[in-house]
Amino acid sequence: MSRALATGLLLCSGLARAQSPAELVQSIDVDEHLGAQVPLSLRFTDDTGRAVRLADYFADGKPVILALVYFNCPSLCGLVLHGEGEALGKLGGAVDYRTLTVSIDPKDRPEGAKVRKERLLTDLRRPTKPEEWPFLTGDEASIRALARTVGFRYVQDPRTGQFAHPAVLIVLTPSGRVARYLYGVEFPPLDVRFALTEAQQNRASMGPRLLLTCYRWDPATRRYGFYIAGFMKLGGVVILLSVAAMVAALHRRGRRRERG
Question: Which CATH class is domain 3-199?
């Protein structure tokens, strides 16, 4: 059972009472669709009441961190969003990105999205402008199409209206393809930075590229881990650069002696 699924089951106790654990396991989880293209033509409404398309958030060439939640969630969604905000606050300006939160509940409305976002930004105590973190609502068809594309499986309890769902952030490339899944309610800033760097593809700076030679995604732990082969490659590069610098210094010293 994945960490995301276990967290979802733990915190959605109302739904757990309505269905057996076996039924829940079959209903909610994440099917990783790495490389899948998100349908950018899907239409939603942002927290100001403006009609938008997903394409509007991919026009500036930045990777996008997508969170699928619902705004009346009593526990899990708030933890996911707070964990995301905490991690992004520690990134600073190291990586350029966009954040995007989409409700999986077609009954959510822009007014509720705005209230939930304002509460989150207040709790985080970050100088984030509201327009920098859109909260979207949409109809059932658009929500299902997006969730299906990224492999996000969830189920609603018809008695309480609550949703059981995974705890996960989905990192998308600037063109809208799925690049990485980050699971849980706490997200190590290093994991987020590496995921964003991967999503940037060839637009990554040299610093993160070198770091990524030492760290690789471990599908078993769903975390970035130290990669010894990468470290040896980086060590070889450092040695070669050191030797080159030493040879250059000796060459300059020899030329100075000849002039003397």
Answer: alpha beta
